[in-house]
Amino acid sequence: MSRFNIVFCNLPNSGSSAVDPILRDIFSHSGYFFTPYGPEGTHRLRDELNRGEIQEPFYHWTHDPVETFSGLIGNPAYRFIFMHRDPRDAAVSWAHDLHMRRALGEKDLQQVLEVVVEHIQPPHVKAAVEWIRSDCMTITFKEMVQDMKSVIQRILDHVGYFDADFGERMSDTEIQRTIAKYSFEAVAGRKRGETGETIRTGYMVRKGVSGEWKTLFPPELLRRYDEKIGREIELLGYPPSMP
Which end of the chain is more exposed for a tag (fewer CB within 10 A), N or C? Predict the structure, then answer.
């Protein structure tokens, strides 16, 4: 069996900063090619695949919808992993990131959150529903926080990492060290939930917890949000916002 091409997709701001660097480190020891563009560069991946220019096996991180990978999902040479979290928490993280970077000018945090939930995030949440209905492995932010080792083990099982013919691999001890190296505590220098400096590189590391949306969403904004994507939030397995 040849090694699979691996595509890791996530609902934006759902915890990829914790999983993606671990996977990159692990697969770098197995001769994988890493696409040199970030998740917004997936159109380049498709162009290069169509021209036969991409190196295989490859690993790519993306936020794109299922239709971007038409003809590849279900292809025996590929393995897809999709990660999501409660979209309301993802929206809060997205708003904090945009506000910190002043990406929307001088809008305050509440104004930025309104833009995120009214205009930016809804297409991604609808795409997340399509992902969980597709032929992919699904992981969640909650699972990752509860037991990162088990999540990584499941991913590695999914891509055949422990098969005899996979090729060069890390030892179990090396894998555990890699997981520890990229833990929230190691990267942020504090425990999850503690207030501290937001770290922004190719990823964002802020608080690493769930439920903050309950204190940041004004009732009227939450009502409009539910009208837009409340059904999708429930289809992803999260409780409704309004009683």
Answer: C
CA distance 96 to 109: 7
The DSSP 8-state label assigned to residue 134 in this structure reads S
Q: What is the Cα–Cα distance from 151 to 153, expressed in whole angstroms?
A: 5
pTM: 0.90
Residue 43: pLDDT band with limits 50, 70, 90: very high
Please check whether residue 26 is in contact with residue 175, taking contact to mean a CB–CB distance below 8 angstroms.
yes
How does DSSP classify residue 19? H
Task: Give pLDDT, residue 241.
Answer: 83
E-strand stretches of the chain: 5-10, 33-34, 58-62, 78-84, 137-140, 199-200, 204-205
**What does the alpha-carbon distance between residue 76 and residue 74 come to, in Å, rounded to a whole number?**
6
Summarised one tens digit per residue, pLDDT across range 159-209 is: 999 998 888 999 999 999 999 998 877 776 656 655 656 555 555 555 556
Beta 137-140 vs 199-200: how paired, if at all? Answer: unpaired
The helices-and-strands tally (H runs, E runs) of the chain is: 11, 7
- Compute the distance between CA of residue 141 and CA of residue 85 in angstroms, rounded to an integer: 5
The partner residues of 34 in beta bridges, in order of sequence, read 59
Cα(79)–Cα(135) distance, integer angstroms:
9
Whether 22 and 178 have beta carbons less than 8 Å apart is answered as yes
pLDDT of residue 179: 94
